[in-house]
Design goal:
globular, 15 helices, 2 domains, mainly alpha, Growth Hormone, Chain: A
């Protein structure tokens, strides 16, 4: 996650000058090589190095995808296209989660190595020329941060990712300690989040186009808040599955609304913002996981109550943090 978050800062600004195909092809090919090395790694140090390389090369996909959606879609289409893109990422994550339980561990890396190799050939042969210009490959992060409307948006992204991962990374431990759940049942509960995420990204994207980015993002926070409040009490197994469904739905509603919001940014801020989105989400997510563990050390009741309060405050102040569709006229 760390090399992914840092490397993501490179690709958005680079795409100002370099054709998307010239970025995507080597990145996908290098991602294939990194997974091949991981799959045949003779010891843990090689595997660790391969994962770092996979993070660096894989970090190009999300920023470039958001920029492409922004450049090739009207404002009324961006939300649903963002939803489809991230919905597909949830499907692939769900497939990976399933395969990790049934195939030999080396094939967890060799399978994407083969898939990425084939994809690199498709990119090389068929991907159209997009994005090349005479514009310099500037890194205008200072300009983005100095824009108060955009900097407030990234403060929001930091906190929502921090809170989501602060809870999400410890749910398995919570189910084990509080309910005595075994590994398979915990896996099914967490899989429910991914299943609802597929629906949440797609539906959230459509609703973001129809109802507005802020409305959908706030609906997501409201669902996450309600899920945490219910988790404060002892629940039946049925309700645990329902809570996980609405927790995942809330997160992806918010994610789709905010991602569509980024696609609405003006051209001069779009490239850096698309990269900064990935970087902030991954880095704040890691910090949230650490802080969530510290809070859970006191008690899960304390953690859930604290994070629910923070979500409530984020909901209250969202109008001051999230850009409206008319923010830049």
């Amino acid at each position: 996650m760390l090399p992914y978050g840092l490397a993501a800062l490179l690709y958005g600004p680079l795409s100002r000058k370099v054709d998307f195909k010239k970025i995507l092809f080597p990145c996908v090919a290098f991602f294939s090589l990194a997974n091949l090395i991981a799959g045949i790694a003779p010891h843990i140090y090689v595997l660790f190095t391969a994962r770092v390389l996979a993070g660096i090369s894989g970090a190009a996909i999300t920023p470039l995808s958001l920029i492409l959606i922004a450049k090739t879609s009207s404002p009324g289409q961006r939300g649903r296209r963002v939803g489809v893109f991230f919905g597909l990422t949830f499907i692939s994550s769900l497939v990976g989660l399933f395969l990790s339980g049934v195939i030999f561990w080396r094939w967890i890396f060799l399978s994407p190595a083969i898939a990425a190799l084939l994809l690199s050939l498709v990119v090389y042969l068929y991907f159209p020329k997009v994005g090349s210009s005479e514009e310099k490959a500037k890194f205008n992060y200072l300009q983005v941060i100095s824009d108060k409307r955009v900097s407030r948006l990234f403060v929001y992204i930091f906190f929502i990712s921090f809170l989501y991962n602060g809870i999400g990374q410890w749910l398995g431990v919570y189910f084990s300690r509080t309910y005595g759940c075994e590994q398979f049942l915990i896996s099914m509960l967490l899989t429910t989040i991914s299943l609802s995420g597929i629906l949440g990204e797609s539906l959230g994207g459509v609703l973001a186009d129809r109802l507005g980015r802020l409305t959908v993002a706030n609906a997501g926070v409201a669902l996450m808040f309600a899920s945490l409040i219910v988790l404060l009490f002892k629940n039946s197994l049925f309700f645990l599955f329902a809570i996980m469904f609405f927790w995942g739905l809330g997160w992806t509603f918010n994610h789709a609304g905010i991602s569509a919001n980024i696609c609405d940014l003006p051209h001069k801020l779009l490239h850096e913002s698309a990269s900064l989105n990935s970087a902030v989400r991954f880095l704040s997510g890691g910090l949230g996981a650490v802080f969530g563990g510290m809070a859970a050390h006191w008690s899960f009741t304390f953690e859930f109550a604290l994070f629910a309060l923070c979500l409530f405050l984020l909901f209250i102040f969202s109008r001051n943090l999230i850009l409206t569709e008319a923010a830049y006229g």
